[in-house]
Amino acid sequence: MKNYSNLLARRRQLAASLHLPVLLFAGDRLSRNFRANKYPFRASSHFLYFAGAPLAGAVLFLDGDRQIIFFDLPTSDDALWHGEFMGVEALQSKFAVDEILPKSALSKYVQGAATIPLTDPFQRLEQSQALKRPLTAPNQLSGGDRQLAEAIINLRLQHDDGAIAEIKKAINVSIEAHQRGMKTAQKMQTETSVRAAIEGHFLEEQMPCAYHSIVSTAGEVLHNESSPNDLKAGDLLLVDAGAETSCGWASDLTRTYPISGKFSPTQRDIYKIVLEAHDQAITALKPTAEFRDIHRLATKIITEGLLDLGILQGKLDDLITENITATFFPHGLGHLLGLDVHDMEDLGDLAGYAPNRQRSEQFGECFLRLNRPLRENMVVTIEPGFYQVPAILGDRRTQKPFKSMINWEKLEQFQDVRGIRIEDDIQITANGAINLSQALITSVDDLENFMNP
Fold it and tell me: CATH: 2.30.22.10, 3.90.230.10, 3.90.1030.10, 3.30.200.20. Which one for 161-451?
């Protein structure tokens, strides 16, 4: 029997912090190329957090102790094509609400109600019509909608036991999938074949992908969702893939390993620098620590490593001041993880950034997705990397002072390192942090031994 304690506690906490009625829209299935051909349904994460399960087309009403789901039951024609659907009593039990009402009754409950606008503009228009008022995009909120967003953020930043259990479930399936990818990489001919092995395991465990998987030998393309390339000895394969539970809780893991099962000396050198940044960043995580400071720690470690290798040249302090390492590590160290793989980013920086903080204008740090003090039971990713992005390197060759800070001849020796990223999912604890995905190996020796039993 389903345990509703966490779900009901979330609703009580929301009611205690927000004295407004709330309407949370699940969203509905979208058509692809014709009406009957639908994309897989993914409910709004804000709906999922308080409803506990997806239900296409549903609206959840919360007002003090009153809890209603508005939903139009499928017709007999729907049953012909999609099978029988549960009745009103079963729905009421599944969602732990007082009533199930048809959506035609919704108009009586919209007065003064706050909502979170849906991200899809067409569905947001329908939502606006149902509420009888205009809606902004979800990252431009004001009034009661802004108050609701801030109350939800305060709850979702720190995960309860039920959320942590779901995230761990997604992580464990993702670990198994990544291991399958590592085992098959040497036998496969294409990136797509490795991706199929990984995503096939998700499917076997009845979990969708939490996001488009990245399985690529072109690791310098940070979010490379295409996997068309042949696998060649000497290449590194960057695999960024995570499963999502049936209730929407995400995982997000990345590993980089050699197709041949053996790192070259240059690949090994760079990999160890990225791993050192990864490990030290995780060690530094704890409540009240500023995530921006952890990002800067990882950047410093990568800078030191590249200086020791001779890729960078000059004084360490000058290199850090000029942020030269953003040439090779141009993104933020990590982000929040929860019901969204980038949790609550539909709200812009409202969740990721503490109040009154703005994004940096400095290249690299401007892409930092998380800039707030850490709290117990947050879950964050730690994902340092090294990439040789042609467009960035081209600019650096001509710009002062960057062109003199890079030893271009030395860098040429590392052409077999196009991109490396190592990413784990970390729970902040009372005194530090736990790597929830630690079972997925990261060291050079462990990876080589695993791929060459």
Answer: 3.90.230.10
